[in-house]
Specification:
By secondary structure, the chain is α/β, with parallel strands linked by helices. It folds into 2 domains: 1-185, no CATH class; 191-307, Rossmann fold. The chain has 9 helices and 10 strands. It has an 8-stranded mixed beta sheet, sandwiched between helices. A two-stranded parallel ribbon has the order 7-10. The longest helix is centred in the middle third of the chain and has 36 residues, at 100-135.
Length: 307
């Protein structure tokens, strides 16, 4: 279902959840309304931006959105509520890529993660969101929000043409069509978890660790083109981490949220036309997929033997 509205009680056009409780670690955007008022951004110096993110990803849907509104003129958010068949298509695509036996390795990691890592990662996410909500004001009521099943839906394209962004930040799992990513005047950008072009596609931080390539555990700010993470690269960003205690999931969030100031500066440079791209022509290129349990155990054992 496609739904378009301005921000309401929970900050993203939805009623507040009365069962959410009073814990600061699970507050929604509206529950911070007692803070400094919404950040209204006016004036031509700030780029008009839109964020695409997933409905079940509060760290981006709430935390990153607040940061983007504090540093740019955030004019819209596309919240993706993907139908079940989209996950089935991703499963089929991964099976074609790695085969059935290796896909069992993927499933084994999913089970291990849910049983052994998910709880501590959720606590880390809650603390990080809590911190972001303290640092950045609630979104302006005028911020438009579109709920859609896909970033490539016709309604998303119409929404983007209506709000006319300078920059689009895509925090989603689906490749965008040219008719969508070409709308913003300065381009559409991703914060890719992995150093490109070495670690393109999915879970680049995980695979850099699996390859014992700690120097390339990081984030790439790149402009979307028609390939898979093959667009112009505007910067690499890294963070401190300990792979014996930080999961790949936490690390790929840390490389974003530990670098917000630098990312802000680069986005403003891009909008102003002052940013230059990095030369990646001689760098090796690799396309990766979902994590394997066997690869996780190997890199974890190696890290514990060589702290």
């Amino acid at each position: 279902m496609i739904e378009l509205e301005s921000l309401s009680r929970d900050g993203l056009g939805r009623p507040e959840n009365p069962s959410s409780g009073g814990s600061t670690s699970t507050r929604t955007i509206a529950e911070w309304s007692s803070q400094t008022g919404p950040s209204e951004r006016t004036g031509s110096a700030l780029p008009r931006t839109v964020l695409i993110c997933h409905a079940d990803d509060a760290l981006n849907r709430e935390g990153l959105a607040r940061w983007l509104a504090a540093t740019t003129s955030l004019v819209g958010i596309v919240v993706l509520e993907e139908p079940p068949q989209r996950m089935r298509r991703r499963v089929k695509r991964e099976i074609r890529r790695v085969g059935w036996w290796r896909f069992l390795d993927v499933l084994a990691f999913r089970v291990y993660y849910r049983l052994c890592l998910a709880k501590q990662d959720a606590a880390w996410e809650a603390r990080t969101l809590d911190d972001l909500c303290r640092r950045f004001a609630p979104l302006a009521q005028s911020t438009k929000v579109l709920h859609a099943p896909s970033p490539n839906a016709a309604e998303v394209e119409a929404f983007l043409r209506d709000v006319a962004p300078d920059l689009l930040l895509a925090r989603c799992k689906t490749l965008l069509k040219p008719s969508v990513f070409s709308i913003p005047t300065a381009g559409t950008f991703v914060l890719h978890p992995g150093i490109c072009p070495q670690y393109r596609n999915a879970h680049g931080c995980f695979w850099a660790l699996a390859q014992n390539d700690r120097a390339n555990v990081g984030l790439t700010l790149l402009k979307i083109d028609q390939g898979v993470d093959t667009g112009p690269v505007y910067g690499y960003y890294r963070c401190d981490f300990d792979e014996t205690t930080d999961s790949h999931h936490v690390i790929q969030h840390k490389v974003v949220f530990d670098n917000l100031d630098a990312l802000r500066d680069k986005l403003l440079e891009i909008h102003a036309g002052r940013a230059t791209t990095l030369d990646t022509r001689d760098a090796p290129s690799g396309e990766w997929g979902q994590p394997w349990l066997s690869a996780y155990w190997r890199y974890l054992r190696r890290a514990k033997r060589n702290p």
